[in-house]
Amino acid sequence: MSQDVEIRRPRILMVSQRNIFPKNPSRCPHYEFEDIVCQIDSVELQAPIPGKYFELGTRIARKVGKHSMIALNPGISKIKLRNSYDMLFLMCTFPRDLLNLNIANNWRDYCKSSVCLVDEIWAKQIFEQRCYLKLLSKFDHVMLYYSQSVKAVSEFIGRKCSFLPPGIDSIKFCPYPDPPAKVIDVYSMGRRSEATHKKLLEMVKEKNIFYVHDTISGIQVINSIEHRNMFANMAKRSRYFIVNPGLIDSPETRGNQAEIPNRYFEGASSGCILIGEIPKNEEFERLFNWPEAVIHLAFGSDNIDKIINEFDKQADRGNRIRRNNIVQSLRRHDWVYRWESVLKIAGLDPMPGLLARKIQLENMAKMVEEETNNVW
Predict the structure, then answer these.
(1) Are both 147 and 210 inside the same structural domain?
(2) Three-state secondary structure of the chain
(3) What is the CATH number of the domain that holds 285?
(4) What residues make up the domain containing 317?
(5) Residue 210, φ and ψ in degrees, nearest 5
(6) How would you label 229-240 residue by residue, b for 16+ Cβ within 10 Å and e otherwise?
(7) Could you tell me if 97 and 8 lie in one domain?
(8) Residues 78, 142 contacting (CB under 8 angstroms)
(9) SS3 sequence, 230-274?
């Protein structure tokens, strides 16, 4: 009986912020990653709840941390650990999120190893983020989305960090096996070049293209899963997808860094032609190293109409690019490959669910490769 209990015991303790920030659209891909991991591994998901005075507690905790390097819990419910785990895994959008995860003082007694994945850390901001970054030194392994911050963060916390690129639920975003009509001509989300945006609006008037773009700033999602499903459905129906490096219009924050945001993975997985600036980043050259993965358009350019008009004359070329983007995403950029990297760095073997998903992805990739009809 005791052996059966031991077999069923989760080996991964995952702490999620989905109840702390349930409506922030930029965090939805992180929750998507967590959900995939829960499907393919043995996971206990802990999602603590913010207390009544969380906003006030957050302001106090940040102010105290900035001046004293003391990390206070801003008002998040404590979690009680009762089992032993092979690994603690948590993901932060920003370094300040580590305050929200200061919810179990003795977690090291229950977890054999620990991994923290951080999305947005800019090398230029390390000193002002020093209170939060010091908390990273508690973890056995620190992984960063921003490859050009790895060296600076490693030196600051005195622990070697590693790069883990963003990923995608490539099964959800894949247009196959029943590709929908690509009724959206151009899809642009988030930050944009006003010159490019203006030219696309001209094309709406002159050529009657269907251009989907944000018209409201600072929106909140009602449900993170529904938001990702809607986003995927729109992307799968888009011919062209606008992409640019992270914080492309905010050099005062990013400095000289050119980082790879989720948009490149989302657009490619959906079978779009990606148009935008190619990041000057060695990791990008490795991750997107197939022909015409991105059609370069310098940020601030107003000649996107010429690029689209040229592609509209070359249907075979466009279909080839879209198909390559889907296949490469299925074989390289699904969340399953990112989790495989996490397990490798922690010294853990993959579980059957991970291997089964990889087989499913490969079968889908072969199906897309064998597709010869001009479905769009």
Answers:
(1) no
(2) CHHHHHHHCCCEEEECCCCCCCCCHHHHHHHHHHHHHHHHCCEEEECCCECCCHHHHHHHHHHHHHHHCCCCCCCECCCCCCCCEEEEEEEECCCCHHHHCCCCCCHHHCEEEEEEEECCCCHHHCCCCHHHHHHHHHCCEEEECCHHHHHHHHHHHCCCEEECCCCECHHHHCCCCCCCCCCEEEEECCCCCHHHHHHHHHHHHHHCCCEEECCCCCCCCCCHHHHHHHHHHHHHCEEEEEECCCCCCCHHHHCCCCCCCHHHHHHHHCCCEEEECCCCCHHHHHHCCCCCCEEECCCCCCCHHHHHHHHHCCHHHHHHHHHHHHHHHHHHCEHHHHHHHHHHHHCCCCCHHHHHHHHHHHHHHHHHHHCCCCCC
(3) 3.40.50
(4) 170-333+352-370
(5) -100, 105
(6) eebbeebbbbbb
(7) yes
(8) no
(9) HHHHHHHCEEEEEECCCCCCCHHHHCCCCCCCHHHHHHHHCCCEE
113 Rama class: left (phi>0) / alpha (psi -120 to 50) / beta: beta
- Distance between CA 146 and CA 261 in Å, rounded? 9
- Largest pairwise CA distance in the chain: 73
Q: What are the pLDDT digits (tens) for 278-299?
A: 999 999 999 999 999 999 999 9
Q: What digits encode the pLDDT tens for the residues 237-270?
A: 999 999 999 999 999 999 999 999 999 999 999 9
CB atoms within 10 A of CB 8: 8
Residue 353 burial class via C-beta count within 10 angstroms: exposed 0-12, middle 13-18, buried 19 and up: middle
Question: Cα separation of 44 and 85, whole Å?
Answer: 9
What domain count does the chain have?
A: 2
Considering the entire predicted model, what is its pTM?
Answer: 0.93
> Do 19 and 143 belong to one domain?
yes
Per-residue pLDDT tens digits for 178-220: 999 999 999 999 899 999 999 999 999 999 999 999 998 878 9
Low-confidence residues of the chain: pLDDT under 70: 1-8, 69, 105, 372-376
